[in-house]
Amino acid sequence: MSLSAGHPDNQSLNNWRMPTYIAFLRAINLGANRKFPKEDIRRAVESAGFRDVETYINTGNVRFTTGMRSLPKIEAALEAAFLADRGFEVPTIVYGTTELAGIAADAASLAVEHPEAARRYVDLLRFQPGADTARRMEAASTENIHLFVRGRALHTLVDHGTESAGPVLVTVSKMLGVSTNRNANVIAAVAGRWCR
Question: Do 45 and 109 lie in a common domain?
Answer without folding.
Answer: no
